[in-house]
Amino acid sequence: MNAAFQKLCAMLTAAGVPDARFDAAELYRFATGRDPRLDDGPSAAEAARLSALAERRAAREPLQYILGEWDFMDFTLKVGPGVLCPRADSEIVCESALALLQGREQPVVYDLCAGTGCLGLGIARHSPGALVTCVEKSPEAWRYLTANTAQTGVRTVQADVFTYYKTLPAEGADLIISNPPYLTGAEMRALMPETAQEPAMALDGGADGLDFYRLLTEKYRDAVRPGGWLVLEIGYAQGPAVLALGAACGWVNTSCRKDYGGNDRAVLLQKPEKSC
Which residues of the chain have pLDDT under 50? Predict the structure, then answer.
């Protein structure tokens, strides 16, 4: 193990970076193109670049922003300031939706609050023929969404989900998926340094974190065909509240899926086969 990498690990650890060794290895590979475990050390130019990257990470800038891209499922997304970083927990949400779409030909799917487009793109890649539309309001996130969806066949719409439902045809969607803002006011005031650098628009779910779930369960129900689904990413403690909102709005067959850490992460709500 070379001295430059050991120094980088120590610097990030001292700065309080979670999983500092992993981040140090990612930055080393990014700066040099080589594995630090097998490398004798960086050149002078590489060392200068590595130092600049290390200072950014030590200041708790998200690693994803520094690298400019991040993997999700089996593909890579462009990411940077102004858009929510894709997370592994969201893969469970996408996989849950894909299971519901099995056997459907050309299902119509909307990804609301799409951000990087990770959920919509995951569905488009693994549900052949799916007609996916990603909807995002933020101009900053929009540029990453359009870059990630370019030449994929996924449609993009820049719109506010608080009004977009008014434009949708009745019972036209097979599935609506969303990772909406869901942090509570208290959680917004206690963010980790990295998360605090992500856009508040993508995080703030109102005082109790449920503003978007109230909207999605009530206002988007008419857009889903009978038997179709609403699939929502949630915070780890929000399962009971979101399931209750769904039941109050007439969704049935409600259930919750856990993420890799054993926390509630995806709520699945079905529209009754016969409209009530």
Answer: 276
Q: Are 83 and 62 in contact (CB under 8 A)?
A: no
Strands 75-78 and 69-72: antiparallel
The dihedral sign for the CA sequence 100, 232, 130, 121: negative
Rounded CA gap, 64 and 50, in Å? Answer: 15
pTM metric for this prediction: 0.94
Instruction: Check if the beta carbon of residue 137 is closer than 8 Å to that of residue 158.
Output: yes
Q: Are 176 and 109 in contact (CB under 8 A)?
A: yes
Q: Residue 127 — φ and ψ, nearest 5°?
A: -125, 85
Under 8 Å between Cβ of 187 and 164: no
- pLDDT value, residue 187: 96
Indicate the burial class of 202 (C-beta count within 10 angstroms; 0-12, 13-18, 19 or more).
buried
Cα separation, 4 vs 20, whole angstroms: 14
